[in-house]
Amino acid sequence: MSPDICIVNFYTTSGRLGLHQDRDESRGSLSEGLPVVSFSVGDAAEFLYGDQRDVENAEKVVLESGDVLIFGGKSRHIFHGVASIIPHSAPKALIEDTRLRPGRLNLTFRQY
Q1: Which cofactor does it need (predicted)?
Q2: Among 18, 36, 69, 101, which is most buried by a count of CB atoms within 10 Å?
């Protein structure tokens, strides 16, 4: 069985991530379509996804603090990215209780 990994990214309020596919895992993990699980905390993000690396035709969804995104199986190789971070959108209690810097903390789990 492949090891589990967690990738940690912090996006400042001006952070972005271009459309890309996650293809760094083992051949077995990719061919089985094992899921990617992404958990976000802090400011909301405009998340893009689609069948092609085309920002103009990508779908957009806002991921709020605490949202979990899972893609696996047939959708495992979708192009995806972060168009923008929505400043000052984190829950007030989260900022007050944790002193999290302005921005978005993202934890992405997958089998490598």
Answers
A1: Fe(2+)
A2: 36
